[in-house]
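in:
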């Protein structure tokens, strides 16, 4: 049997990270079995549809590198792949269930249902439709259909017994039918509900494995009843635990949690995000943590999926990103970092190649770059207390002594290169009686105003240039003298 999986997002906004993880696991499961991965757009709830959201799904999938074998924009033998374009397909199936007694027409008005709902609420009960219309005679149903009365079609759930299914992660799940509601299958607008469409589509698209969030665990018994009613073999179910922002709540845009696109915009690398997301609820065998998508396609397995909710740890994502930043070919790093340098530094003023060399190993996320390099554009305010460093055996007094000593010598350096700066200063330090750290630590602070910088005193002096270096040095000396 060829494995066929599908990712079935609703176009209700952007691709959030929980959705991306579902997409990724679905993709990986298909690939690891040499199967097909399908994209289906579930847009039957047209009130919730957000304009542009479908395009966003395509672009996010492409940006993530999750190539689907079939889908709305790539075609395939089981199309259309957008539910609203499959509209005419569902009603005949629903009618088939009406014929066999597994579904029925319902003409109940909104008023009647609202009232029943309010009564249930008053009694503190969960609302369940009372099967009122199940008892209409065939003739009456026909008469009302002929008269053009609005209707829905409901699933006729048995009043007794159990409904269940087997999940590849959660095992056998079973509920009492008496707890299930006769959900609507076809709405008054003629479109199917998710409850119905997912079954019809998964079956008619030949889906063998259904992967989706655990929020569908409790409804899956109902879906399984539909498969049974049709006499179809149900797919294998793989319900995935949620991705949480913390122990209390799921990841959500409403709370400002970033989407996949947000992370890309902030300068996270897609490879790092994918690697991180892959491990959000799945553990590989062994200690390795860094995986390319190609590697994941080979080793992904359901055994590694954790039943407990996964917690999204931003620090861990930063760590992954830093790993991938370091591994980028230098030219690629330079290309990606250049716009971020330009946010802080006037174009053409600094040797960006050299700066990028110094920055690559220190960049966790590209968005951090402007803050890390802005001291080059403008000398920041700083507390002279940072001249104090125990290990370097230095403090503001020693700093003043060192800076005043080195100032005239620096002026003679020509050409102003890192090599010259290094050689001349290192040669000079012993003549002052100071230790290396007692000169280099204050010098770097005096010209950068920062306790930590990409590169040391020589690199920064080189990047700033002679004039700016000497000017900053003079200012810092003057401040220490006050
Ligand atoms: N359209 C559903 C959602 O976005 C998909 C559920 C499923 O994969 O069956 O949550």
């Amino acid at each position: 049997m060829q494995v066929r999986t599908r990712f079935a997002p609703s176009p209700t906004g952007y691709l959030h990270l929980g959705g991306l993880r579902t997409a990724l696991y679905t993709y990986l499961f298909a690939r690891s079995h040499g199967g097909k991965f399908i994209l289906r757009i579930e847009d039957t709830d047209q009130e919730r549809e957000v304009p542009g959201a479908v395009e966003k799904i395509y672009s996010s999938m492409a940006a993530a590198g999750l190539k689907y074998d079939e889908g709305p924009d790539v075609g395939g033998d089981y199309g259309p792949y957008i539910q609203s374009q499959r509209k005419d397909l569902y009603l005949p199936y629903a009618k088939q269930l009406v014929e066999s007694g597994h579904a029925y027409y319902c003409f109940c008005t909104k008023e009647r249902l609202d009232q029943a709902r309010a009564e249930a609420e008053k009694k503190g009960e969960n609302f369940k439709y009372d099967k009122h219309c199940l008892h209409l005679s065939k003739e009456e149903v026909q008469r009302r259909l002929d008269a053009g009365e609005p209707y829905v079609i409901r699933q006729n759930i048995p009043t007794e017994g159990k409904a269940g299914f087997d999940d590849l992660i959660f095992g056998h799940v079973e509920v009492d039918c008496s707890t299930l509601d006769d959900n609507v299958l076809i709405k008054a607008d003629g479109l199917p509900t998710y409850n119905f469409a997912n079954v019809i589509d998964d079956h008619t698209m030949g889906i063998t494995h259904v992967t989706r969030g655990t929020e569908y665990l409790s409804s899956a018994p109902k879906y399984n009843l539909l498969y049974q009613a049709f006499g179809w073999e149900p797919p294998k179910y793989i319900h995935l635990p949620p991705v949480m922002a913390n122990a209390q709540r799921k990841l959500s845009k409403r709370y400002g949690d970033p989407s996949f696109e947000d992370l890309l915009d902030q300068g996270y690398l897609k490879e790092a995000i994918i690697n991180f997301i892959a491990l959000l609820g799945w553990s590989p065998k062994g200690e390795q943590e860094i995986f390319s998508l190609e590697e994941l396609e080979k080793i992904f397995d359901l055994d590694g999926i954790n039943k407990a909710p996964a917690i999204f740890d931003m620090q861990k994502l930063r760590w992954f990103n830093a790993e991938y930043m370091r591994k980028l070919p230098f030219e690629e790093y330079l290309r990606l970092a250049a716009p971020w340098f330009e946010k802080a530094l006037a174009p053409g003023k600094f040797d960006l190649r050299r700066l990028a060399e110094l920055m690559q190993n220190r960049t966790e996320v590209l968005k951090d770059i402007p803050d890390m390099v802005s001291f080059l554009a403008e000398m920041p305010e700083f507390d002279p207390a940072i001249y104090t460093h125990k290990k370097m055996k230095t403090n503001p007094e020693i700093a003043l002594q060192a800076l005043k000593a080195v100032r005239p010598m620096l002026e003679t350096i020509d050409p102003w290169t890192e090599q010259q700066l290094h050689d001349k200063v290192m040669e000079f330090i012993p003549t002052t009686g100071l230790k290396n750290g007692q000169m280099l630590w204050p010098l770097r602070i005096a010209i950068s105003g920062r306790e930590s910088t990409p590169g040391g005193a020589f690199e920064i002096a080189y990047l700033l240039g002679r004039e700016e270096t000497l000017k900053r040095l003079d200012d810092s000396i003057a401040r220490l003298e006050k």
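note: The mean pLDDT is 96.
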